[in-house]
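Feature request disguised as a bug report, sorry. It would help if multi-protein outputs had a clear separator. Right now it looks like this:
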Amino acid sequence: MQVSLYILILLITICISLSLAIYGFRRYSEPEMAAFGYLMTFIAVWAIGTAGECFFSGIGMKLFWTIIIYTGNQTSPVLFLIFILLLTRSGTWFPQKCIPVLFFIPAITIFLAGTNELHHLLWTSARIVETTIAGQSLVIEHGPWFPVEVVYIYLILAVSLICIIRVILSGPGIFNRQMVIILIASLIPIIGNILYTNFGPALSGIDTTPVLFSFTGIFCGYAISRHNLLEIFPAAYEQIFRNLQEGVIVLDHKNRIISLNPAACKFTKLSESVIGEDAISALHSWPDIGLLLTGSQQDIEIEADFQWFHIRSNSMPSGHSGKDGRLIIIQDITIRKSLMRDLEKSSADIQRTNVKLSLMSGVIRHDIVNELTIILSALNLIDPPHDPIEKDLWSGSKEAAQNILKLVRFTREYEEMGLKKPEWIDLWEAVDNEGVMVTGDIRFENLIPRKTMIYSDSLIRTVIRNLIDNAIRHGGIMHVIRFSMEKSESGEILICEDDGKGIKDTEKQSIFRRGYGENTGMGLYFIREILSVGEMGITETGKEGCGARFEITIPEDLIRRIPDRQ
């Protein structure tokens, strides 16, 4: 038995590897970390076999521990590949069902190591040499199977490196730095193994590969924990890129195509063979695409093969060459265009129908007004009868005719509601103009700030007029009708109040119902309908005996004030 500096290094390697294995198994639910845990476990087995081979001096014991070494060094590269495949999400081109096949050659090699005395396929002879670092070390002469297992192991490691480099070339920013760390960590033990495999006798049989693999584990653990490599991984970007429903074409600073996803191939009828070609030449069937590439337009709509596409161009800065590329986004808007055409057609049909109905109702309304005018004129020409019953009939007929005339005029205003496009109206001016209808002993106050603009249907003037008329008709004895403004959480409040008799608490909701009231029963109902079209509301908050108070809530984006010019 012997103790050397090399054995101490291997013991440290075993401790590091087992610690990293425990770290991986603690996150066993994550496939990548489970593979990492198994990888570090078999690196520890490799280091244990190497330490045992160095510790014992008899050639029989050294050959026994060599079998343990083969168990570790044949399994670890395959587990490393599995770890990289899972880490880089490369399962799309390397199916998981093929993974068990990877252990076929290592299993044969381990079996041959255990039975080498029967066939000498793995090594033909073995001898002990004295070394400065490792003491008595075992040096073996390789047999005919050795090149097979070496080529296989190097092939496994090469595939691992390809997966890492592939992600580095396709991933952005911080992910590149993460994968570079893992790439460097992967190269360290590979170089060490190449030196041991090809220059073993010159190194006196000292295999540093398990030691270097432990450093690989440290670097991989750092990359995973420090940068949250498993939570946000760049390989997902490629999957997202390929699965996007929008077509994406990536151009370099010379407008050459450097990448395009399947959706772009489908829309443009191109294939990935156009990569490297000039975009304008490749997309010659879409001549308007040049407007995007020259920067004269940022987005266009193109019709091709009975399909409509919305194409958007975005500048794509390059962190390497310093020259900007371009990202072309293609969206199929055929269905949207079809719906818009149907909507426009339906809208036109509805508009034509409304025009016909308006014309018809206007003619009928005109005829009704004429007939009512004749009736009222005749009633005015007839002296009121002296008989009380006949006088009541005469008065009732005249009042009914006048109410019908009001209702006809109401239908004209109601018909116009919501048909006219909203506009910015000077609210102070509108209130002031309608205030002229207040006469007699009633004082009218307009406290709305000047240049207060409201975005509304022009019928807002009818709302103001009806509020004033309602106060005069139903307010009883009063001295003032006042309009003012107050701030609210959602915008502002237009207030119309008086000092008349007010409204009973039991009637505050009923007054806005159609048909309620002493006159036509349409005034406040009509006001509420007009305001609802413009996303405004109205409530009555006054106190009975103190006067009515109507509050109209106006959203913030529908009210503004024009500052006075200095």
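(second protein starts here, but nothing in the output says so)
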Amino acid sequence: MQNEATKWYQLEFDDVLNRLNSSKKGLTEEEAEKRLKEQGPNRLPREKRFRLGLFLLSQLKSPLIYILIIGGSISIAIEHNLDAIIIFAAVAVNIGIGFYQEYSSGKTLEKLTQIVKVIARVQRNGDVREIDSEKLVIGDIIHIKAGMKVPADARLIYAKNLEANESLLTGESSAVNKNTNSIKEDVVVGDRKNMIFTGSIIEKGEGIGIVVKTSGNTEVGKIAELTKKAEEDQTPLQQRMGHLGKIIAIIVTIASVLIVGVGWYEKIEFTEIFITSIAVAVAAIPEGLPATIAVILAVSSRRILTKKGLVKQLIAAESLGSTSVICSDKTGTLTEGKMSVEKIVSESDKKEFYLALALANEALVEKPVSQSGNTPEGPAIKGESTDQAKMQAFLENSDMTYNELMLSMPRLNILPFDPKNKFIASFHKKDSGIRVYITGTPEKIIELSESVDKNGEAQKITEEYKKEAELKYEEMAKDGLRMIAAAYVDIQNNENEVLEYNEKEMVNSVKNITYLGLAAIKDPIREGVKEIIKEVNDAGIRLVMLTGDHKLTALAIGKELGLPTDQDSIMEGAEMDKISDEDLRTKIREIDIFARVNPEHKLRIVKAWKEVGEVVAVTGDGINDAPALKVADVGVAVGSGTDVTKEAADLILLDDSFLTIVEAIKQGRTAFDNIKKVTVFMLSNSFTEVILILGALLFKIPLPLIAVQILWTNLVEDGLPNFALAFEPPEDDVLKRKPIERNKPILDREASFIAYPLGIMTDIILFSVFFFFLKYSHYDISYIRTIIFATLGTDSLFFIFSLKSLDKSIFKMNLFNNRYLLFAIALGFAMMVSAVYLPQLNHVLRTSPLLLQHALLVMGIGITKLFIIEFVKLLHRRHFAGL
């Protein structure tokens, strides 16, 4: 059915219907199910994030793998077969660990990208309902409006002030005006004004179209570069750590060349010193650091997902830890978002009042069907929470259904709510004329009113009555209620004129209106959010509440939440309009609540906070919130928001809850902590083998370790333990610290204070032990090397427990809350014990079984290093924290 040769934009609508065997009422459910089985889901082709062939090729680009392969090949050439086996085993293990790291993080990202679904409004059997866009088929009739993402390629049959952003396809940022006129000549995609295309964003207006292409046959589906992106860009942190790794690699390479040069000068067998220098380089280069960081960020994203937060990019997990200001919407984030009309204040005919609530409304009411049908029983109301509350009030107080109402009073046009206009207006046929129903902010509706409806009779409204109405809504607003005013106006224009009204003409029609009254809407505070706000404050994060509600409503909610509510701590949008950006920057730290703000105000607020040096997270749900989300360091979209807002966001709240933002920040800080721990762990032993080998050459004594022993200890130390640290749970005080400074280095004062002294002390201790046994004992060189080998391989398995927290004493930690780390340590000890006491491995690794006293010495050195770290941490706490 997806005929590539058909030029749908050249056909008249009826011809399109005939060719697709559809109708103006849409497909039946049975036909849609049949077509779905034939055509498959409406899903763009996805290339797997992880492919084994590409992974192996990427591994062959690694300098570390090159070094190992060269070393293994030389070992085979000179018949050092045991060395070759160990070296190629190291290659296999490095690739294996890399495989798991990339596969794990890749699967996490793939899962995350599939969670957010594009919802389509489809008309089937004449009824409009919402479905997952993957269930759309060719011939479906779809309804679109501002804020939606186009779910399939469609030929328009109705377009009202419709503008679509098609930059995904054309590269043009300006929105394209759409119409329903057929086009006779051949035109490129960007000029097909009667078509809408998958992935485009509806910026304005509304429309109806018939689906002509789905999945990979859509225009965007043909663009492989856009739809089959297999690689994830590295985050700035990964890039910085990769750069650090390259610097270390250069230093180690120079050291390795120096080892070969000095060894050759000292007349050590060239093949032995060459293979040893390769092993030293492999052990010293922290090649896996960027990959481990990717795993840490993926683990963080997965944990956030379990708390109903969806991180769209790994970089967001990194940025969350630095958040110092949260600009949060009130509705649905700090409150439950489950609105209900609590009270009506009106002297009008109540029937007319409820009509205004239902008709001046953008909510979708799905027709109820049986349990076996495709929609839930009872009328399901979909849309913005205020619209849902208004519609529910109508349904509870009316003897007719919404569909019956729309049949009796057909809608001719609608002006969607706009923060600038502050109202929504819907144009309907009524009796022999046209009536416009309006709902909006009380201030605006009262200002536009020329009369008031009293028991069905319009009377001249007086200034005194307006002041009384203002006092009424202000009094209710003090109780934290959202206030909505309703009105209507009858216009004389004919139907055809109204059908063709543009936005300006509809706005101009809303004048000299008749006031109907007030609706007080309650939206309860989310359970536990007050306690969470205190936790946020303890974490050094500033909460700023943004709301479109009246100042008095905002103050009442702010007081309930525990926010400052004096007059100096709140600012209205109207006041913002009167001050410059510079003045706003000066005052920004004094304001905790912004009331009656629109998206433009929100954008200015976010910019002001950023300009005073803060890292800002901001929430949004509407199409006009997208600019603020893009400007913020972390854009947060609520799950019930528009597609365009989710597109601009870094984090999506699947449950719309403020608690999810806090949990995301917690995991962001944990990710930063774990990256520091891994970095300290990997760098603390990086240069030990270099120092040991170079020291032995300079002192003209035998080498403390041979190549296969260095490679084995590298597998034990840098194989699983550093990877296991990626799964460290949050520390108890993670939300009691100040936010992480923007661009704070991983190797900060705290980390450096541990990593560098630890590395230096390790080198001194090991070299001293080797020198002592070599000079003052009767043991042969193989036995002494085994002591050094065992010490080097096990000491990190002891002190890694101390690195579970870089500032807290080991006696205040839970040492057993990371099962991955416990497994890695157990496996590491098993490998080292086997290497020392199994005869088969004694032969391969040239080790000797240690006596009990020397095994205890090895353990003692490991425990000593642990307490050295604890002592260094204590010094740091006392010197820098004033403890």
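Even a blank line would do. Unrelated, but nice: The first strand starts at residue 119 and ends at 124.
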